[in-house]
C-alpha cells in the first residue's frame, strides 16, 4: 500500500507569489499617490482655484477695470429677484430634460446595434460618429445655415415648416436647440453603450437562447439590466453637459426670441461680458455649479450608483 505524498513546493516560487508581510494581496502593485500627483496639480490649478475665485467674486462688485469691492449678498439678492434669472434656470432644466429623453433611447438602441456583427456595421458606425468630431461652433453655424428661413430648407418646404422661421417662436427655438444637441452628442453616448454592450458575457445570451428566450426578451431581461450603470453614467454626463450648454444658444438664438431661450449659461455671459457685472456673472456661474452638483448627486443616490463595485477594484 502506497501513501500519497504532497508534491514538493518550490520555495523560490512561493516567495515570488506571496505578498509582502504587513500588506494584503489586493495592495500589491497598487500605484502610489505620485502617479496621481500631476493630474491632481492640474485639476487644482485649472478647476479648484478658478472655482474658489468665482466663489469670492460672487460676493463682490467688479466691472473688470477697478479693484473688486465687497458687496455681501447683494449679487445673490438681485439674481433671486430677477425673473429672467429664474426663467433661465427653468429653461436650462427643460433643455437638459429634453436632451436626456431624446438622446438616451436613440443612443441605447444604436449602441447595442453597433456592438453586433451586422454587415457594413463598421462603415455605418463611422459615418454616424462624424458629428462628434465637429466643434459645437461648427455644428451651430451649419444648422443655422440649414434652417435659415430665407435660403435654408424651411424656405423650400413651407408646407411643413409654415413661414419657415423655426427660431421665431419659443417652442420652435427650444425644439431646434434640443435637436441640434442630440444630433451632435448622441454619438458620444452611443459609444458608451457600444462598449458596455460588448462587455456583456455571451454566456448569458447563450443560456437565454437555450431556455427559448427571443430577441426582445433577451434585450429587456439581459441587455438593459447589464447596461444599468452605463445608463446612469450617460445620464449624468447629459445633465452636466445640458446645464452648461452655451455655444449653441449663442450662435443659433442668442437667447431669443426675446429671452425665450436665455438659459443660465447664456445669462451668465450677458451679465459678465455684456453688462460688465462680473460679480453677478460669478454668482450665476456658482448657482449653476450648485444646481448641476445637486442633480448629479440625487441621480447617483437614487440609482444606487454610489454602491457600485468593480470586479477590478484594487488592481
What does this entry look like structurally?
β1 and β2 form a beta hairpin. This protein is an all-alpha fold. α4 packs parallel to α10 (170-198). The protein has a two-stranded antiparallel ribbon. 67% of the residues lie in helices and 1% in strands. It has helices at 11-17, 33-57, 74-80, 83-114, 121-128, 130-133, 136-146, 153-156, 158-161, 170-198, 202-210, 215-226, 228-243, 247-252, 264-274, 278-303; strands at residues 60-61, 69-70. The chain has a domain at 93-263: MetI-like fold. The chain is built from 16 helices and two strands. Mean pLDDT is 85; it is low at 1-19 and 311-315.
Topology:
Blueprint: H1 11-17, H2 33-57, E1 60-61, E2 69-70, H3 74-80, H4 83-114, H5 121-128, H6 130-133, H7 136-146, H8 153-156, H9 158-161, H10 170-198, H11 202-210, H12 215-226, H13 228-243, H14 247-252, H15 264-274, H16 278-303
Protein name: Xylobiose transport system permease protein
GO cellular component, one term: plasma membrane
Keywords: Cell membrane, Membrane, Transmembrane, Transmembrane helix, Transport
Quick description:
Belongs to the binding-protein-dependent transport system permease family. The protein has a domain at 93-263: Orthogonal Bundle (MetI-like fold), CATH 1.10.3720.
Assembly of the depicted chains: single chain
CATH architecture label of one domain? Orthogonal Bundle
Q: How are helices and strands ordered from N to C? A: HHEEHHHHHHHHHHHHHH
Give the beta-strand count.
2
Which blocks of ≥5 consecutive residues have pLDDT under 50?
Answer: 1-19, 311-315
Q: Kindly identify the CATH topology of one domain.
A: MetI-like fold
- N-to-C terminal Cα separation, in Å? 47 Å
Number of helix segments? Answer: 16
The CATH superfamily title of one domain: MetI-like
In spatial order, strands of the major sheet run 1-2
Q: How confident overall, as mean pLDDT?
A: 85
